[in-house]
Write a structure and sequence with these properties.
Helix content: under 10%
Protein name: DUF4249 domain-containing protein
Pfam families: DUF4249
Structural class: mainly beta
Shape: elongated
Low-confidence stretches: 1-32, 62-88, 315-324
Organism: Flagellimonas profundi
Mean pLDDT: 83
Keywords: Signal
Number of strands: 26
Distance between the termini: 22 Å
Number of domains: 2
InterPro entries: DUF4249
Number of helices: 5
Length: 452
């Protein structure tokens, strides 16, 4: 999945000890069109040598009408934890000219790598005693820039750990916590983000897959045109061509935790919860890893994201939040076009944690597998070969056959149907592909950092 965390429509940044709560926008949004078309900017560069990213989008309205059945449906954007009821969706801003300039004259140009995502052409990192400024020229000629930003002082992550716990809403699960320390004269304002990677094991995997021999009935004729042999549809089992049992997947945090160390006694923050995972979440079924990123930010950046938290808790969010009332540090050079967003320069430290399901939930059943598909009831669709299929009823109304499902990638081999196939049954038991091929939900390429 792409590492996007758009703040369009007010990305929900949850507090240090809170779980992500979906935001349900009110009907006020339908009487207010001032935000539609507003450019939304999210940009953060760090002191980690890397390809830096800038995200650009525009707010647009999603209307309910007779052709779009969203009247009672929540629209969920995968890039944020916000659920907007018939509200605003992002429209990616394409074709912009994006660059970051420093006060010493260095210019870092960016290129669009996917819709609305702009990446620096060369890797770079923010350094102390230098200021950075974002410049954007949209495809329609609008020019935007940011206030100059400097790199805050660094801090330390002392420990990242996982504990079994019960959430505020009564869910059993695991909390991911961070202990951090910081200097008395440095920044004590932080944002947390994470990258989580988990192992996926397909529960109904076998070493074999189907190979289609014939997908329809064929006839063999003699020289006189008489049928001498009938070749029915058929498949055979062959070893799988790729790894499909064990996969991995990496997802990125959709929101970030804020921490104000200035309200604490001393120079240490303990038990800041950055993630809660319910027991029934399949991502912790086997082995799970999380890379926690602690970003020291400026007072201006912290204040901006604190406002997002406050607005997200309002009962009349969109009636209060206008481009002018949520001021970031990005503005239109001409001064007459609204914009929402923030360009941030942050110091970053990170630490990775691993744990297995049995470490926290010994002798307990694994969470349900991904999706709502029932993997536990294999079926035996007909092959279309009377020599191998079970009997058909007189009306011959068996469900769709095996070969068609194999062609569409819908099923995978599970077991031979050793009993004489029953009525409308074929010679093989099959399961939905997701149950036997982990590549449906992940990748069979093990990450370079992974430790078993």
């Amino acid at each position: 999945m792409s590492c996007r965390t758009y703040i369009y429509g007010l990305a929900l940044i949850f507090s240090a000890h809170a779980c992500v709560e979906p935001f349900d926008a009110t009907s006020d949004i339908f009487s207010d069109t001032s935000m539609v078309g507003t450019l939304v900017v999210e940009a953060n560069i760090t002191d980690i040598e890397a390809v830096q990213k800038v995200f650009l989008s525009r707010m647009q309205r999603v209307e309910s009408d007779s052709t779009v059945n969203v009247e009672e449906q929540s629209l969920f954007n995968v890039h944020t934890p916000i659920i907007i009821e018939r509200g605003l969706e992002p429209e990616f801003e394409n074709g912009a000219n994006v660059e970051i300039r420093t006060d010493n004259g260095t210019v870092y140009p960016f290129e669009e790598t996917e819709d609305g995502t702009y990446e620096s052409i060369t890797p770079f990192k923010a350094v102390s005693n230098s200021s950075y400024q974002l410049y954007v020229i949209t495809v329609n000629g609008e020019e935007y820039t940011s206030e100059p930003m400097m790199l805050p002082q660094t801090s330390n992550i002392d420990n990242v750990y996982a504990e079994r716990m019960t959430s505020d809403t009564g869910l059993d699960g695991v909390g991911i916590f961070v202990d951090a320390s910081f200097s008395s004269d440095g920044s004590k304002l932080f944002r947390y983000a994470y990258e989580e990677t988990f192992k996926i094991i397909a529960p109904y995997w076998t070493p074999y897959e189907f190979e289609i021999i014939r997908d329809q009935t064929e006839f063999v004729y003699d020289d006189l045109g008489n049928v001498v042999e009938t070749l029915y549809p058929d498949v055979q089992l062959v070893p799988r061509a790729r790894e499909e049992r064990v996969c991995y997947r990496t997802d990125f945090s959709a929101g970030e935790v804020l921490l104000n160390g200035n309200v604490l006694n001393g120079n240490r923050a303990e038990r800041t919860m950055v993630r809660f995972i319910a027991t029934d979440n399949p991502i912790i079924s086997h082995r799970y890893s999380i890379l926690v990123k602690q970003r020291g930010v400026s007072r201006a950046a912290f204040d901006f994201y604190e406002k997002l938290v406050a607005f997200s808790q309002s009962q009349s969010l969109f009636s209060q939040v206008q481009p002018g009332s949520l001021e970031g540090n990005v503005y239109n050079i001409d001064g007459d076009t609204p914009v929402i967003g923030f360009f941030d320069v942050s110091s970053e430290v990170s630490q990775r944690l691993y744990f297995n399901f049995e470490d926290l939930f010994p002798d307990e059943p694994l969470p349900p597998y991904f999706g709502t598909i029932n993997c536990e009831n294999p079926i035996a669709p007909i092959l279309g070969n009377p020599e191998r299929d079970g009997p058909r009823p007189p009306e011959d109304q068996c469900s769709s056959g095996l070969i068609g499902r194999v062609k569409q990638g819908l099923v995978e081999f599970y077991l031979d149907n050793y009993d004489p196939p029953g009525e409308c049954e074929g010679p093989y038991l099959v399961v939905p592909t997701i149950c036997a091929d982990c590549n449906i939900v992940g990748s069979n390429v093990k990450p370079d950092f992974w430790i078993d």
